[in-house]
TrEMBL record, chains A, B:
Residues 1-25 are annotated as: Disordered. Residues 33-233, 271-470 form the dTDP-4-dehydro-6-deoxy-alpha-D-glucopyranose 2,3-dehydratase domain. Pfam families: Hexose_dehydrat (PF03559). The lineage of its organism: Bacteria, Bacillati, Actinomycetota, Actinomycetes, Micromonosporales. It comes from Micromonospora parastrephiae. This is NDP-hexose 2,3-dehydratase family protein.
Amino acid sequence: MNGYPPAHAADLTRSESSAARIDRRPDDRGLTVHHWVEQERRRSHMIVRVVSLADLTGWRFDPDSGTISHHTGRFFSIDGLDVTIPDRAVPHWSQPIIHQSEVGILGILVKRLDGSTYCLMQAKAEPGNRNGIQVSPTVQATRSNYSGVHGGKPVPYLAYFQAPGRQRVLADVRQSEQGAWFYRKRNRNVVIEVDDDVEAQDGFRWLPVAQVHRLLRFDDLVNMDARTVLSCLPLGGPELLGPVDGEQSDPFRSALARSYRPGTHARHTTGEILNWLTNVRARAEVTAAPVPLASLPDWHRTDDRISHRSGHFFDIVGVDVRAGNREVGGWQQPMLRAHGVGVSAFLVNRLDGVLHVLAHARVEPGLVDVAELAPTVQYTPDNFPYLPREAQPLFLDHVLDATPEQIRFDAVLSEEGGRFFDTRCRYLIIETDEPLGHPDYRWMTLHQFTELLRHSYYVNVQARSLLACLNSLVQP
Amino acid sequence: MNGYPPAHAADLTRSESSAARIDRRPDDRGLTVHHWVEQERRRSHMIVRVVSLADLTGWRFDPDSGTISHHTGRFFSIDGLDVTIPDRAVPHWSQPIIHQSEVGILGILVKRLDGSTYCLMQAKAEPGNRNGIQVSPTVQATRSNYSGVHGGKPVPYLAYFQAPGRQRVLADVRQSEQGAWFYRKRNRNVVIEVDDDVEAQDGFRWLPVAQVHRLLRFDDLVNMDARTVLSCLPLGGPELLGPVDGEQSDPFRSALARSYRPGTHARHTTGEILNWLTNVRARAEVTAAPVPLASLPDWHRTDDRISHRSGHFFDIVGVDVRAGNREVGGWQQPMLRAHGVGVSAFLVNRLDGVLHVLAHARVEPGLVDVAELAPTVQYTPDNFPYLPREAQPLFLDHVLDATPEQIRFDAVLSEEGGRFFDTRCRYLIIETDEPLGHPDYRWMTLHQFTELLRHSYYVNVQARSLLACLNSLVQP
């Protein structure tokens, strides 16, 4: 069984077939990434079972509020949130939400060698991954992980990210995660360039950065944490990914490459973008107030799970994890399991020969700062028709009616497997030639995204995944 | 009495003598600013009296929690905050704090004419100002003000700031205010450049931007809101303030002018500054939890005020305001009255001929994002010796022992007069030639501050005041 939960056997087939499409060119150890991930899957001994939520070892339910928390008070907790966003199709609701106030580290070590850039990637098992192991950052650790709360093994390579100043820091910024499921969560996205020879330990590989980006095109292969760190690389464009072959002959890639360059003509100045976003944020009267988990009117708790009365949105479930090569041998934890695969799509357009992305200033209840730049369309089809038709995203028709020629990127990728169980999203990049516009949307270049990604609270995690996916289109 | 509270008569003398030092060059209407402010003071009919906190008209005390809030639920409320910051000389305390979740607008209209830039400034009375009227931004309004919650007059010039896109937006960014006294307060700092002729209404004057900056050198004349907006002007340096006379002959001003220029050699790159600040923010384990105001162990409420048992820090008092020319004729409200004059000081140093400022990454409990860049030294002397000696700020000796030649700027300026009663701070800019260093401090250029001031949560309000004061030193 290779250590995956039996419930996933059917899905594994699909995942295997995706994996079979992986570029088989050998990496610097003569192993294709495909073989490497397969090998690691065979070696992995993680066994994940969905178990009763009521009896999770190490976790307690507050008898009054219903709050679920770890007995140490660390890791994370699950509580209720009451949300009001006036002038919405659904202006008020309440829901469970994950509180994780600790700032974890998501870090990739990079090294330049003979004109190419390599990333130290990890084949890491997470309990929520349907296929067990995915290509992950060098380091992916909560503070509770690396400060040894659970008494596990030390985190490899952590020292490179904890001693700033000893190496070149290419990126270091705290970024939000899913604002619909986390309350004000922030993780530190770090890219450190090393000069020394750093050996890849067991379970790690140095991979060319262009290859890591190519892997994004395969379903469920590069994990969310790797995607968000890749999006924060300041040289997200051709400078990092190497020269663009045949740039002149492909107008799309040519427009994409120009979009990364500073000084390229953008539809709006960065000052205008900031003015627009400040205005959206100042106008929005969002109330997101913590309330007791036990008091949520539409959510029911059984011994098995917490779920919405409609059966939509998501469940909170319990899982039991047995793992051979993790920091600790086994544990239990609650996880969020979404119903239905999400959709996150960027509409892109060549404006004056420069690729522009239609960004949405999207309000989400768990964000630290009201609204962030999000995909043009971000929603979960399965929540309709429970949700009213008016709640459907703007520009959805442009996604649903896209012709195959318009679809530049299409892959189903997993959300973070440490908190989300079998929770996935279809990431799409769709080209349009229509000059779409709306007060809550703006056309932006990739250079403008790069500028804003140096700072917290500008780009949401789904948009960051899509920006990493756009990077993957620079090379044919 | 010119409408100031009688209790302030003694202090007025000092303020008058400061005002008498104002540059008497006429503005474009042939009136000196000194005469204009004096004239407005004579016309003002604001009478402020400290009254019992228990009987404030329009305000209610929650019988259980003690929360003080307006009967409409708007404006602001006062609640308790429990703060833990490990590894501090004082690692835990609790205190009253002001909640004001509405984002207000602080806006200045500017106009370029014959190569000079003019700002439309207002002579505005605020109840907390010891001298009644101070030079204020064009617009200074909470959302409750301008949405007419109190049924007052419309706010002049507000339309210029509410219809973005019609004029040139030079700055538009939400910035924090006092993180020791406000819980996550943000105001929108906006600078709009107009091409039309905009007439100065009664109580307003178009003043050259260099003159507004010169006024900063006088005690209690330019209010906090004006200072913070001025600091967000993207051309804070010589470009806006005009050519620097005799730049070559004065090494200090020469180094100051160079510090504003992009591309000048800075001690650290902006990437290094961001890495450092991310690290400080990620490491800090700050807990700032709202608690009932009635439950604070060291704070006592009488009918007159809420105060700390030591008599230090601040009181919450009630005031009665009668005003002839405000949006409404009269009102009552609670205010925060600090004990003792604060000190905010920047140490500055010419490094390789470029003026650098020693910024402190300072944790404050009410900040949205853990820590912001703050003055080198920011403290209230009167709180010692109640606070332990170890709680004294680093580098304090460099401020206390500064020789007159080292002191480049020294003025006592008022904090915001709408929430703070007679609450002031001494702003100092002190030159040093010592290469001071500490992990929580970094030498930064003014260009680097300008870059970060485009974004929220980087520079605290005291540092922004000091940056406006630094602007005032460009001209002799």
